[in-house]
Amino acid sequence: MGGEEPRAQMREPMTMEMYHASRWIVEPLHLLDCCLVSNGAVAVIVSSAERAGDMKAPPVYVLGMGQGHPGDPLRAGSDWETETGAKIAARTVFSMAGLGPSDMTQLQLYDCYTYTVLVTLEDYGFCAKGEGGPFVADGKLGPGGSLPTNTGGGELSGYYMWGMTPLSEAVIQGRGQGGERQQPNDYILCTGNGGILNYHGALILSPNRS
Amino acid sequence: MSDTTPAPSRPLPQADEISQEFFDGAMEGRLMLMKCGGCGALRLPSRRHCDVCLSDQTEWVQASGRGVVRSFGIMHQRYHPGFQTPYNVAFVELDEGVRLPTNITGIANEAIRVGMPVVVDWDRYEDVALPKFRPA
User: Fold this and answer.
1) Can you tell me the distance from the alpha carbon of A106 to that of A92, in angstroms, rounded to the nearest whole number?
2) Can you state the percent helix, strand and coil of chain A, rounding each to 5?
3) pLDDT tens for residues A44-86?
4) Structural domains of chain A in order of their starting residue, each with its CATH number
5) Contact state of A26 with B77 under an 8 Å Cβ cutoff
6) CA-CA distance, A25 to B94, in Å (whole number)?
């Protein structure tokens, strides 16, 4: 989806043929399953809602936040590869905002690998566990889809600035400054991961204060 | 590059005071696991403090050397000239309940399956031995 973000590193439309032709990095991941290497910087200013209203740029409000840190126990009984901290964070972030998955109008998900998006969608309850692939197969995450996701290309096509990639695009979208790629922004779920899916954080952002 | 340039060797681990007993056991063909002296949880990799109860008391126990393939991938990207691609990287869940990153030997990469029973297969070098696993 990076084609509509002028600063994206990967702007050529990708076909399934190009995807399958890209070389293996670690099977089952092709090169085009992996995030980019980028040089850059992103800064976000956080302030009280009162002060934000006096600033030049339109504010984006935090309606909820959540975290979940399962760690990496490397022990029998742990399913951290398929059930991540997002599942814990989801409960907190949705309950704080008084919202649920079906209320979200767009997603900015940490996408270090394609698989990360699928497991995150499952853990937030957008679909059942193991059904992430079929869930997205109709293109609903793309431009004009019912669940626009990673509108700036994310880390796979846009640029890799760790959790600041989804956060920066969430702020741009929340301000309504997405230009051609602007999508409905009432409720934006924004997520980040750390370690090897060992740590997870989430925000629900909105141009509206409640 | 001349024809006589030796192939670069793969980097090998060096024991430190926390892992000495693991590598000493490996040289003798024994798969040793650090066990918490406080709560009994196994620590793999070995480390000073228990991630369950934070105790620094330890003992060492010998593992059976048996387990199953928990997950695996096939490495195609060559990160070090001492490694020939493609090679597999697997997590083996030992019968004792801890998971060890390793390689599966004695079988084609295409034939590796999650859940496959495996048994330790020592990869011996001059000063160190590494626990690999082959189908049981």
Assistant:
1) 19
2) 30, 20, 50
3) 999 999 999 899 999 999 999 999 998 877 888 888 889 999 9
4) 2-206 (3.40.47.10)
5) yes
6) 27
Residues of B in contact with A77 (CB under 8 A): 97
Distance from CA of B75 to the nearest CA of A (A): 4
- Across the interface, of B73, B75, B97, the residue whose CB is closest to A76 is B97
A196–B contact, CB cutoff 8 A: no
Note the pLDDT tens digit of each residue in B72-122. Answer: 999 999 999 999 999 999 999 999 999 999 999 999 999 999 999 999 999
Q: What tokens does B98 get?
A: 């801890």
Q: Is residue B28 part of a domain?
A: yes
Distances (CA, A) of B67 to A180, B12, B100: 54, 24, 10
Q: Which residues in chain A are contacts of B99 at CB distance < 8 A?
A: 74-76
Q: Are residues B19 and B56 in the same domain?
A: yes
Of A24, A29, A75, the CB nearest to B97: A75
We report the CATH number of the domain holding residue B122 as 2.40.50.140
The total of structural domains in chain B comes to 2
Residue B98 has its nearest CB partner, among A27, A29, A74, at A74
